[in-house]
């Protein structure tokens, strides 16, 4: 269900930033999907196509990047990229670490011309 929620956030941003698409030749939205979200670029695109049609946004291009997660250990100071959630630092095994990018969904920018 998150894909619908993300798609509606894109539409809200588009309305705020550009209003009606008729004023522009092309519009692209740059999006970053967080490492642990279950939303895929495909499901986000189809949710956006569904929701966006009503507001005339079906021609908007979505540039979707998938982010990687990184943890930073407070004990051994290791900073490492991880592909899936972990319970302990891969280097020293402590659970005293912080997740550096746990954001699920970021709208980086909207390009309209
Ligand atoms: Zn560590």
Count the domains.
1
Instruction: Enumerate how many helices there are, as a single number.
Output: 2
In the CATH hierarchy, the third-tier topology is known as hypothetical protein PF0899 fold
Mean pLDDT across all amino acids: 92
The structural class is alpha+beta
Strand order of the largest sheet: 2-1-6
Helix content: 10-25%
Integer-rounded radius of gyration: 18 Å
Name the shape in a single word.
Answer: elongated
Beta-strand residue percentage: 25-35%
Listed once per kind, the bound small molecules are: zinc ion
**Helix and strand element order:** HEHEEEEE
CA distance, first residue to last residue: 31 Å
Compact summary:
The chain has 113 residues and is an alpha+beta fold. It is 25% helix and 29% strand. The protein has one domain (2-112): hypothetical protein PF0899 fold (2-Layer Sandwich), CATH 3.30.2320.
What features would you highlight for this structure?
alpha+beta, hypothetical protein PF0899 fold, 3-stranded mixed beta sheet, 3-stranded antiparallel beta sheet, 2 helices, 29% strand, binds zinc ion
Write a structural description.
By secondary structure, the chain is an alpha+beta fold. The protein has one domain (2-112): 2-Layer Sandwich (hypothetical protein PF0899 fold). The protein is built from 2 helices and 6 strands, in the order αβαβββββ. The protein has helices at residues 2-17, 41-52; strands at residues 27-33, 61-66, 69-73, 79-82, 97-99, 105-112. The protein has a 3-stranded mixed β-sheet with strand order 2-1-6, with helices on one face. α1 (2-17) packs across α2 (41-52). The protein is elongated and about 55 Å long. The two termini are 31 Å apart. The model has no long low-confidence stretch (mean pLDDT 92). Zinc ion binds at residues 73, 75-76, 78, 89, 91-92, 94. Zinc ion is lined by residues 73, 75-76, 78, 89, 91-92, 94.
